[in-house]
Amino acid sequence: MDVSVSQLPGIGQKISLKTAEDSMLVVIVHHTGKRELYFFEDADSDEADFAMDLTPDETRELGAQLLGATYQPVNAEQLQMFKKQIVVDYITLTEKSILSNKSMEESEIRNKTGANVIGIVQGDDMIAIPEVSRKLLPGDVLMAIGKKEQVAALEALCKGEE
């Protein structure tokens, strides 16, 4: 990214940020505190594709968001390690399973397998983060998360292969 700063006599300061994709973001900070934000799809264009005024508070909030003050994405290497360790799978509960017709609490899925049930598809209903009182019925599809061996253990229980 190419950044340039120039003084605007009697107005304030102009900050131009040119991207690798040849677009440009321009911020004009007035002596009064007013901020103008301009976006140019083509950095060589004379007319902005988008413009808006920002208050000082809005400018600080935008800066904080861009700096990652409230959200830090996971880097690609960490994400690959996470993907190798964690599995999310959908498992159908059979009638012969010892989990059938038990509540989430009675089933003790986490204690028996280490996997977590984060959702259930029950007919047309989709239940996110099911309550402990939710009854598991044959035909339910459990959305499970855990290590590969934990999810495999839950799958065996759901098939009645305990």
TrEMBL record:
SUPFAM superfamilies per record: TrkA C-terminal domain-like
Segments forming domain RCK C-terminal: 74-160
Matching PROSITE patterns: RCK_C (PS51202)
InterPro entries: KhtT, KhtT-like_N, RCK_C, RCK_C_sf
Name of the featured protein: TrkA domain protein
Gene source species: Aquibacillus albus
